[in-house]
Amino acid sequence: MTKVGLMEREKREINAIWFTFVGLSAQNIRHLELCKITDFNALFAVTNLELRSLADRGRLDVETKRKLLQSTVILQNHWNALHSRTSAEDPPPGPSTPAIVTTSPQGYNRSLTANGSKMITQSNSMSFAAAPKSPKAARLVHAIPHKWHRSTKFRFSGDAVCHFCQRPLGFGFLNAWEKCRSCKWKVHTQCKSRVGDSCGLTPEHLRVLFDKLVQENNGGMWKDPQSVPGSRSMNEPAFQFPDTAIDSSSSTNSSAPSTPALPAGIATSVTTSLTAPYRSERKFLFPDTENYPAHNRLPILVISEGDHPTTTEIEQETENHLKTASMMGTVESEGTIVAVQEEVVEHQEMDHEEGPSQEAVDKFNKRADGGFTWERHAWNMSTIRGPNAQASWNEVSIAFDTIEFDKQNPIIGRGRFGEVQRGFHYGDVAVKIYNMEHVSDHSKRAEEFKLEVSAYKNTRHDNIALFLGYFMTDGKYGMVMSLSRGSQSLYTLIHVIREPLDLPTTRMIARQICQAVSYLHTKKILHKDLRSKNILLESKNKVVITDFGILSMKRLAYPKGKLGWHTSRFWANYLAPELAMALRTEFDEHESEDFPFTEASDVYAFGCVWFEMLTGLLSYEGELPHQILLKKSQGVKPVLPNIKCAQELKELLISCWSTAPHERPTLPDIIAKLTAVPKKQRVNRSPSFPVMMKSYESNF
Ligand SMILES: Nc1ncnc2c1ncn2[C@@H]1O[C@H](COP(=O)(O)OP(=O)(O)OP(=O)(O)O)[C@@H](O)[C@H]1O
Asked: Where is the Phorbol-ester/DAG-type domain positioned along the sequence (predicted)?
């Protein structure tokens, strides 16, 4: 590849064109330039958080901010992929040994060719980063120093030009110029300092990358599968790996692409054009890990934007649906026309007459146990069906009109499956109104709702949101529960307020979570959606968990007619690898099986919450959901920043993230470990995302 140096002005222009292409206004771009984001290297040198705060300071609107953040991650992935390809396939002029840490799934470092480089990739084994020397947080920075050496050769010809300034290097001994041993660039000595630490990634690479990305997008909308749900056919391969000439499974000196997943189309074009002579169909895969089989291509996760816009979509659809239904009646699948009002009456009558049918209970049991792990008889059905079942349902039924809703400030928050309102029912309460639109058969909604609520109805634990009752009135399905003071979640505490948690508090909260989930497990209830958002802070010393037993494929697949699964933000971060693999591209509603949730998948999710509390970061922070799914399917684990706490606690985290579910500890084991570790420990969070990786062994 010919190397043409780009002047600073040109780099700046490319940067500006890129931002314009992403959708930033001239004012936004000026603001970023004033903040020293003048070229891609500068852009990549800031963390997501820093970029977010820059965007906030520049008053970028939510949508533009999102585009900026997403496009930066995607661009960086392309950049890394491009670098790993070109450095592997084109040496020279690529860097001879890019210092990339790659580790094996067995948990040891496969290679560490430091070589002064700071390029870091994610690892598929568990390792903790060494204590950072500098507190500067940075995303993956391409910073591989050149290995300059001063040439002493006599130059007979003056034709050769400086790769940086494009002026002749001159001839004879008199002209001072230097050559990089790795990438073979020749530059004037005075130009050397201006080239930067970008050995192996030349401005020409950058130009090609940029051209390709812009051309492929054809000036149109940013083609990110997450932001444009309908932009890609489900029949197309969802993602392609950048081909790699290095097989990391066999090489001991390999440079694995840190983020192998590239959006379809873009990935193909970039890699094809840049590396056509070396193209192979080989995919990057760690040994003994899985990948999505052809029949189960990587699914699309449609993520809520801002708070929960998908809920708004659902509400809109619901409203339209109800409007149409109230005017025309509802056409049932059998062709029967049922007036909506009659249907509501029917529900109300049913509420007080009987519990769910045996068939529904059986189906639910299958779902509750994931259809895989638990025996059907293990479900405690006495309160669902049995001699006293109806009495027990009546006991917890609350008349909707006896709840007073806060008129000033009714909504506490909205989630994917409904909204939570502040109310009064013989005391302050939280009322969660569930969206049951995913059950297309209206006559089955009440039954399905009861099955979901039954998980709450049977629980009494200090660390579980207290269920007070339920209602099913006028097509409203809701649950009344104790109002958590402050209505704050652990997520808000860690990621919004950014309250540092000391180790004793962290351990205490972790223990409470484990005790609550363990209690649920003894009741044969799986949480299925354990996340910091679903852990509410009752006080500084007490948490309660909520939102358990609700999640199902059916819920995530609603609304239909759109591609992909509709999930909350960061849902994929907590998903156990076996669940990620089970997430099919399409939902088949005739299939009774749900996700293979197990106790072990709850343990995996607990590991993620534990990680959040220890580090203040989300696992796989800053990565797009499809990348996370792909990594999980390949056994690539989250990068661990530096954490200074007892080894047992680190090991605990690692064991919770075991790829094989049976290798994860049980919750009682975790509680025992959390209790056993000496109390006087402090957590020193790393201020940054990974800095330099150390092997698993060196830490343990
Ligand atoms: N019992 C409660 N007391 C006080 N606040 C609550 C209670 N239950 C839920 N909330 C708050 O209500 C809001 C919405 O909760 P909900 O569980 O519906 O959605 P979510 O968990 O935020 O989002 P999603 O379920 O889509 O991930 C959250 O901010 C949550 O903290």
From this structure: 145-199
Burial class (CB in 10 A: 0-12, 13-18, 19+), 502: exposed
Task: Give the pLDDT confidence score for residue 425 in this predicted structure.
Answer: 93
Ligand 1 centroid vs 568 CA: distance in angstroms? 12
Pairing mode, strands 102-103 and 411-415: unpaired
Say how far apart CA 202 and CA 476 lie, in whole Å: 61
Say if ligand 1 is within 6 A of residue 406 CB: no
- pLDDT value for 290: 56
CA nearest 600: which of 700, 500, 669? 669
What is the torsional sign of CA 52, 56, 61, 62? positive
Q: What is the pLDDT of residues 453-475, one digit of tens each?
A: 888 888 999 999 999 999 998 88
Question: What gap in Å lies between CA 440 and CA 451, rounded to an integer?
Answer: 16
Q: Is this complex scored with an ipTM above 0.95?
A: yes
C-alpha closest to that of 110 among 223, 220, 246, 17: 246
β-pairing verdict for 177-180 and 148-150 = antiparallel
Give the pair of three-digit tokens for residue 633. 């399917």
Crossing angle for the helix pair 203-217 and 62-89, to the nearest 10 degrees: 130
3-state SS, residue 146: coil
Residue-level length of the chain: 700
Provide the residue type at 451 as one letter: L
Q: Which atom of ligand 1 is nearest to the CA of 414?
A: 14
Q: Where in the sequence numbering do the catalytic residues fall?
A: 529
CA 125, 131, 136, 142 torsion-angle sign: negative
Structure tokens at 688: 């940054």
Mean residue pLDDT of the chain comes to 66
Q: What is the pLDDT of residues 201-254, one digit of tens each?
A: 555 565 566 655 655 544 333 333 333 333 332 223 222 222 222 233 333 333
- Measured by CA distance, the residue closest to atom 29 of ligand 1 is 413
